[in-house]
Each structure stands twice: as structure tokens, then as C-alpha cells.
Amino acid sequence: MSTDPADARAAGLHLPPGLLRGERGAVARAISRIEQGAPDAAALRATLVPHLGRAHVIGITGAPGAGKSTLVHALLGELLARGQRIAVVAVDPSSPLSGGAVLGDRVRMGEHGAHADVFIRSVASRGHLGGLSPTTRAIVDVLDAAGFHTIIVETVGAGQSEVEIMAVADTRIVVCPPGLGDEVQAIKAGILEIADLLVVSKADLPGADAAARDLREMLHLRAQGAAGAWKVPVLSVHASAGAGMAALADQALAHGGHGGHGRRLHVDPKAAAAAAASARVFRLAAGDPYARATGIVCVRGGPGGAEVQLTLRPDHLNFNGTCHGGVIFALADTAFGLASNSHGTVAAGIDAHITYQQAARAGETLTAQAREVSRSRKLAVYRVDVTRADGRPVSSFTGTVYVTGQHHD
Length: 409
Ligand SMILES: Nc1nc2c(ncn2[C@@H]2O[C@H](COP(=O)(O)OP(=O)(O)OP(=O)(O)O)[C@@H](O)[C@H]2O)c(=O)[nH]1
Ligand SMILES: [Mg+2]
Description:
Blueprint: H1 5-10, H2 24-35, H3 41-48, E1 56-62, H4 68-81, E2 86-92, H5 105-108, H6 110-113, E3 118-124, H7 136-145, E4 150-156, H8 161-168, E5 171-176, H9 182-191, E6 197-200, H10 208-221, E7 234-236, H11 245-260, H12 269-286, H13 289-294, E8 297-302, E9 305-311, H14 325-340, E10 345-356, E11 365-375, E12 379-387, E13 393-407
Parallel strand pairs: 1-4, 1-5, 2-3, 2-4, 5-6, 6-7
Antiparallel strand pairs: 8-9, 9-11, 10-13, 11-12, 12-13
Helix pairs in contact: 2-7, 4-11, 8-12, 9-12
Residues 68-69, 105, 154 line the site of magnesium ion.
């Protein structure tokens, strides 16, 4: 589908009258044309291009029931009070069981929906993988061109949505409720990678402080950004009582001012793929009970690479009081498994070799760094270096995988 303005001009198309002034009827009609896949929908998108990048698009994602809609409603109220014109796009999760869109979002937002400065639209995701409907991006473009100051997009975080939320939102907020079990931890670990702001929702419930602490710890383990880079804040909100909203709005706007506006339009596909691979590595690591039970934590991931760490406990030692070889193998093998599965297709280990250079003792932190040496359609080879905190080598490992045709997401 062409989105080149020149094509639109050649086709003699003009912007719908009133759209740039944000007239509700014009906005609603343009969105309907896009949703229905009208023959001129592509041309309409093309005419919007010169008018994009003025709005600040805030994406709100998180597990089902995390409290996203309640948060959107409260944030909407806060931004309205600051004199903004706001649009909300709620992408309903469609349940494969009922087949229909889950209703309720519009009902809960009803109070603000009637406001002259608010435009609310629900979009069915129609089973599209990853929580964003194919037309969500186009709808956001219409609202951007229509001059809304802020556009809030609510979407369910699941599987492959990382790349899509990057292409839709300038500022990405990930909502985490307290008291998540291990399964949801895995989702959280993946989606954390794309967060500009982390929000612990339902701060009135037990476990909220622990959840905030967990998130801060997870962030702390991640590689530090360059000097001057945005530092991801962790905020707690009790959205159903409107508490914590001023701080959240301040941080979201600060991120927008930090180069956020129009950022969604310049997402480099390579950077998006790297973010998706990184998210996948963290998600896979969190979903590995053996690694978790051993105390192995993932600190970095990307296409073809992974880095994991382990602080040696007394129960990691052998009868000589040094680190058990099996533990070092497990650490190296975890990095190998994550790196080889980072591309999104299931990779099965078929061969591994390890050499040991130096003993390690309790209390030491070992790092295993895996990188891809070669990769063909069916086979890939990885090298893993295990080092101590001072950088001295403990072990080196090479492994080969068979790449199956199955997909992770
Ligand atoms: N205790 C408490 N409950 C909350 C809070 N915010 C939301 N909830 C409740 O959590 C449930 C889910 O809230 P929603 O806002 O619909 O969550 P959601 O993430 O939009 O859900 P989906 O769109 O279905 O994925 C509802 O029963 C809310 O009443 C809060 O601050 N405190
Ligand atoms: Mg919702």
C-alpha cells in the first residue's frame, strides 16, 4: 500500500475537509474509511504524511486485566485538566473463545468520552497477533493529523507486540499489577524491554511495593544507557482512586519532551528487530525454571546474542570447595540456548563442548556471554565465554543448534 504523498497528489486526492482542524465528523469518517479498508484508504494515509509527528503518542501496554483502561481513564482526566485535546484508541483484546471484542473500555471511559476535547475509539484486534490491529497505526496517523495534543493507545501486551508498539507510540508505558505469578513474570520480562515508563498499578493492593522493588531490580540489572539517555522511572499508581496521576503525566510529558514526539515515525527496522530479539531473550529466560532455580539471571539479549550471570552459592560447589563443573556448564548452556533461540524460531542444541580454565569460589559472580559464530537456514554455531567479575576466563564453550521450523511467538 503506497503512502507516498506524490501518489496521493497524482491520484487527485485531498485531505477530507475539516480533518486538520480536528472536526469530529471528519475524523470519525476518515477512521471508518481506514477500518473498512475503503479503496481510497491507502491514498488517505498518503495525504496525511506531511501532517504527522506533531502529536505525542503514548502507548499503554501490559498483561490482560493489568489495569490499563482504568489508568487511561485517570490519565485522560489529568491531561484534560492541563488543557490538552486528547484522543484515545483502545485496542480490544479479542478472545479466541468468545470470538468477540471484549467490551467495557468505552463504558468505563464514558464520563470523559462526551467531553469536547476528547475523542475515543475502540478497535477490535480481530485475532491479529500481538495486540495491535493492522489499522491501529493508520488510525493514530489520522488523529495526529487532526491536531490532538496527546493520543493514548491501549493495547494488551502479548507475544510479538514489542515491534508494533514501537511503531505506534512515541512513549511506551508498561503496566504491571502486583502479585504476578511466574508465568506472567515471563511476559513482563519480555515487555520490559520496550518500556520508557514502568507503572505498578493497583498500588492499594498488597504486594505493590514488592512489585515496584522487583521492577527497579530488573532495570538495575539491565545494561545502562549512554550518558544523557532517558532513565526509565518506576511509578506506582492507584488509578481507580486517581492517585499518582500527576507524577505519571509529568513523566510521560517529560519523555515526550526528551525527543519523544514523532519518534514512532522514525523507528529503524533494525533497532525494532533488535528490541524484539532482546525482549524474546528475557522472556525465554524468565520462562526457564531450571535457570531460575539455579539462580541464573539474564542481563542482556539481542539477535544472536545473550548474556547471563550467576552469583555462586555454597550449593553450587563441589567436594573441593570450588564451583561445580555442571554449574558452569549450565550457565554457559543457558546463554547458548537463549542466543540460539533469540531469532524467534525454536533452536535445539545438538552438540556442545566445554573447556575449563580456572576454578571459581562461592560469592563470585560469573558471566556467560554467548555470540553467534555462524548461522545457516538449519544450523547455527555459538561461542560462549564464561568470565569472573575481573574479566579473567573461567571457561569457554562452543555449541551447535538445529533450527526447527517452529516459531516462539
Ligand atoms: N484495587 C484496584 N483495582 C483496580 C485498579 N485499577 C483497576 N483495577 C481493577 O482491575 C480490573 C481490570 O482493570 P482494567 O482497567 O479493565 O484492566 P485492563 O488492563 O484494561 O484490562 P484488559 O483491557 O481486559 O486487558 C478491574 O476490575 C478494575 O476495577 C486499582 O487502582 N486498584
Ligand atoms: Mg482494557
